[in-house]
Automatic annotation (TrEMBL):
Protein name stated in the entry: Cytochrome P450
Pfam family, any one: p450
CDD domains: CYP164-like
Family per record: Belongs to the cytochrome P450 family.
Keywords, alphabetical: Heme, Iron, Metal-binding, Monooxygenase, Oxidoreductase
Residues annotated as signal peptide: none
Superkingdom field: Bacteria
Species, as recorded: Streptomyces albospinus
Length: 411
């Protein structure tokens, strides 16, 4: 099996329900090069090493022109990249400014103090399922929960959700590798349009916060000063857009993949029902076993790098296949089995290194509260279809719908 066929099959929608056998094939060689140009790294230790390697760049401007064009990853000249698409020192400055109103060291209790508010949102959504014998977990719970949360944190009106939902879907789809040059060009243009419309929307909200400050992140980013100074207006827009999209896209998948996994493992579901403390290690195992982010396709090399005898040249496009790494048998015992209290679970679900997931503490808490409430309060849940229909996105992988039959809702 060539790497060309494997990459095509991994991104083929027909294999979205279960890409893991393909990752196992890919791991036979830690590094392979696809015909279209990207180098795919699929094994745990090699991925983790690269995530900590200063010779790996997240800035698309460091790709060679040929690699950028082949991957449809040209830099958008109309809007600068968010901090996850930058390297130090600019990445570090913007990340510190973003963290000031969100978490340590300046607001260390921000996520912890949201516990009660998150429980209230979860309870309200589950209450809304009363009187139903079938629910769609995505539309009825997994999507509205994290969207409500990130809107409250940022200060984005929840009633505008229909607008940014479409923009978010288009921008997230831009991460997906696509086939022909025409498809790549259409993808690039669609992402640029969506980013421009979202930027214009956020610019209006930010201006409102300058005039009338509130207790939200948009206000903090627009008005606060610190040791690193203040974000420029464009930097506020790109950071807010990143947090709005990343703040719900991945968590929707984490919760949905989690419930799907529990329904496929009824013994574990019953354990969580009677042992709510199991939620903490269980969510870590979900991040390893069914991660919402399957690959990190937007990386490049700042120098020639030798990995297991393969030289990845400077400026090459690099795909870090994190979902494959988290099932690497060289790192995890019995990696294809879901073990809710797996010891030493140093998965790659939130990445590693300087680009480790900004919102990991919030995503963890959201998933823990959501899954605990769902298994406690839904009576007799069972899958209506398995596998369920999946989203098109191969990078941010999860069911588009998850129909579940229930016999009632417990108080």
């Amino acid at each position: 099996m060539t790497s060309v066929a494997l990459l095509h099959r991994i991104t083929d929608y027909a294999n979205r329900p279960d890409p893991y056998p393909l990752y196992a094939e890919l791991r036979r060689t830690p590094v392979v090069r696809d015909e279209s140009g990207p180098y795919l790294v699929s094994t745990y230790w090699e991925i983790k090493g690269l995530l900590h390697d200063p010779r790996i760049s997240s800035d698309l401007r460091n790709l060679t022109p040929e690699a950028a064009k082949a991957g449809g990853q040209e830099h958008d000249p109309n809007l600068p990249p968010a901090f996850i698409r930058l390297d130090p020192p600019e990445h570090d400055r913007l990340r510190r400014l973003s963290m000031r109103p969100f978490g340590p060291p300046h607001t260390p209790r921000r996520v912890f103090d949201m516990h009660g508010e998150l429980e209230e949102i979860v309870s309200g959504l589950v209450d809304g399922l009363r009187g139903r014998d079938t629910i769609d977990l995505v539309d009825d719970f997994s999507y509205p929960f994290p969207v409500t949360v990130i809107c409250r944190i940022l200060g984005v009106p929840r009633e505008d959700e229909s607008h940014f939902h479409e923009w978010a879907d288009t921008i997230a789809a831009g991460l997906d590798p696509v086939g022909t040059a025409e498809e790549r060009e259409a993808q690039v243009q669609g992402v640029r349009r969506a980013r421009g419309e979202l930027a214009a929307y956020l610019a209006g909200l930010i201006e409102e916060r300058r005039r009338s400050p509130r207790d939200d992140m948009l206000t903090a980013m627009a008005t606060e000063h610190g040791p690193d100074g203040q974000m420029s207006p464009v930097e506020i827009i790109t950071t807010a857009a990143l947090l709005l999209i990343a703040g719900h896209e991945t968590t929707v998948n984490l919760i949905t993949n989690g419930m799907l996994t529990l329904l496929r493992n009824p013994d574990v579901l019953q354990r969580l029902r009677t042992e709510p403390g199991l939620a903490v290690p269980l969510v870590e195992e979900l991040l390893r076993f069914e991660p919402p982010v399957q690959m990190l396709p937007q990386r490049t090399t700042l120098a020639d790098i030798d990995i297991d005898g393969t030289i990845i040249p400077k400026g090459a496009s690099l795909y870090l296949m994190v979902a494959s790494g988290s099932r690497d048998p060289q790192r995890f015992t019995d990696p294809d089995r879901f073990i809710p209290d797996r010891p030493d679970n140093q998965h790659l679900g939130f990445g590693h290194g300087l680009h480790n997931c900004f919102g990991a503490p919030l995503a963890r808490l959201e998933a823990q509260l959501a899954l605990t409430a769902l298994v406690r309060r839904l009576n007799g849940p069972s899958l209506v279809e398995d596998p369920p229909p999946y989203r098109q996105n191969a990078v941010l992988r999860g069911p588009r719908h998850l129909p579940i039959a229930i016999s009632g809702v417990t108080d």
